[in-house]
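note to self: dont lose this again. the chain is below, predicted strucutre after it. 372 aa total, dont forget to put it in the shared folder this time
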Amino acid sequence: MKAQRKKWLEDKIKRVQLLENYKVGTSIETLAKEMGIAPTEIIKLDSNETFFISREFLTRLMKQVADECDLRIYPQEEKDRLREKLCDYLNTTEDSIIIGNSSDELIDRVVRFFLEKGDNAISIMPSFPIYKYTVNHQNATFTEVPLRRDFKLDLERILSAVKPKSKLLFLCSPNNPTANQFGRDEITVLIEKFPGIVIVDEAYAEYAEYSMVPMLEKFENLIVLRTFSKAFGLAGLRLGYAVANPSIAKTLSATVASPYPVSSFTLRMGLKLLENRQIVESAVERLKTERRTLIQKLDSVNGVRSFESKTNFVLFSTTKSHEEVYQNLLKQGILIKRLGNLLHLDNCLRTTVGLPKMNKKLLETMEEVMER
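---
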């Protein structure tokens, strides 16, 4: 009995160790300590966070929530109130909204519900890696279909990748890391022809041209993922939501193991931000303006090619080694994302659209690095 238990446990541990996990970025504190500088001197542009909503504004809201919220009591009606406010925001119905502890948690919830061992999920490449990790953890197979050279969807290849056990199709739109939004008509074709559930991840929807949420009335096999981590500036509190037809929404809401997956404090912060939508919308517009400027100025740096963006980050490639560029920026306290080869492109990097002062430092350093 002991030997059997030991082998069972060892096999379980070995399987988890073999699985690839999402690697989070280096923290500001760790980097500052390594470099021997103050954390305030680090310019963090590697994780697609937003800095256009001020920390002071969020702190003020947090103090209001702290005064209103009795943390000794389990969450009560906060989820329902947030769902009601999201209905107004999205122009949808309350019974179509699922609240989760980040959109990552909702991705995991969708995968655990719809996929069994041996089932298949399809996604595009390159794209958000969480889809692959969650599918692999579910003992299902994951198929990646490359985007076209212009970053558009290859509809024929995606549909030809469908297998009898293909149950999920993930589309990140706007896509991370290519920053482009796919055509509404192309996505519609895939929803119509894919035999299972299509998940459109709209983490960056506030920075884009349109949303697929209105299409939920037409398609029962569509799930749209959204988050408070990007445009709303709540990356540290982990709050996400999904929109689906009411039957799927009800089921996914019931599949969460915990009766209180999101804290009352976090739910109230989401509600406060929706009540201050004009602040969020103003921040989004200011970021879009800065995004245009950043793309233009990156393109003016010798040896740099940037790409259009419908997100809060910019993808660019360099004629110099991406590792060399990354390390030289790091020495100046500037942290961006190194990507390497993407499709046919070499030496790709990604930067968050920072505040003007942050971008100015990035651009000045990029010019120095590329001139060496």
